[in-house]
Amino acid sequence: MKRLWKVIPPCLSDVLGFEAVLNETEGLGIIDDPSRYKPIRMGQGGQAHGGRGGRPEGHGPGLDSGHAFAARAGGELHGPGGFDRAARMRSVRVLNSDIRNEDIITGTEAKVMQTFERGMEQYAPNFILLCLAPSASMINSDLEYAAGKITGQSGLPAAEVKIDGEKDYLYGIGATLETLGRILLTPQETLEGTVNLLGANTIDWTEGTIATVDSLIADAGWRVLSHWGTKETTENLKRAAAAQVNVVVSEAGLKLARFMESEFGIPYVTGAPFGAKSAENLALQLNKHKNAGTHARNTETLSVSDLNDASIGAEAGVLRQETDAPEILIVAEQFIANAVRETLLAHGQRNIRVLSFYDMDRTYMLPGDKKLTGEDDFTAQANVDSVRMIIADLDYSPLVKKEVRYIGFPDGGSFSPVHPTENFDMTGSLLDSWLAEKGVIHR
Question: What is the pTM of this model?
């Protein structure tokens, strides 16, 4: 019963992470599923701005979902921030196969191919990605075969993203980005002074944040060649193998970064540049690659411990060797939470633990960090006697049974938040200012 959600609203699924990526491209996504998917709020601060979107409107092959495109093009999106019809049509590049009871016996291939033909006519895509949802997963649909058939008919790159609706949206984003890289990228001559931004996504990041991060990278003397996870053209995505360095700003970008490192020799640096200290860390990491040259790419990748050694000197030792009981818990996507911790450390706070309900990469975990398995796990961590402050989504707060200072922090991945906290631009010193306004740090 560890994964039973009784208090906290469940997070968006991996299928919705797939949708979030595809809707920002010139491709086509096909979800092998009976449900109709409404568009996720793209490029406007993720889920926190109302207009929940991204929810399947029917579950199970016995429900009549009607014609998927007609459902998308007509009617209003529920919620205070809903799209008008034209906006919905512009934002959605993902269709469902509209499978039914009989497909349990006959298979879903015919429905997938019909959806592909409909998508070709409607969107004229440059590539096609397919994924399973729970219903098709249970009947073992063969999307890899369907992808090969699509490529044979159209000449377009197509592939299956290995998800099935059972994991979280960040897992879906990561798997989708890696698959996209595998079908689009080919060796390129290196363009010195260029980077790709990997893992920024429209669920957790605002348009303003992405623009500010681009400016920050430019100020460090680099040019962003392509964005993976936010609005981008296929042409720019195909050029990405020419970048000198990849900048990974969320855990969801690591799979693609590691593929590009092994396949094309492109090194990567990591970290969300949120908070003045984390932005400085990112610039320091990029500077290590300034003179690497275009003929011998430096494949050195920094861990969290390396990063802290480079940025805060003696304080890094304190951070790496922390063994005291936690005083502050930060619960968020791993790279965002690490940036908040880095900011607090720079302002003299100590004994800080990062927790997350989403995947956490061990390379970027410190002692005491933990991937949460469910509500009981969070309850146990939050109610430790030594904890005096929690920075987390407000919807987690009912599970805290002791006196503690609780700072509401945005979680764009919540499926239906009870107490939504609006996303905001945290780039550079903007996070320091926000924490100062909350009285968490003193400037």
Answer: 0.85
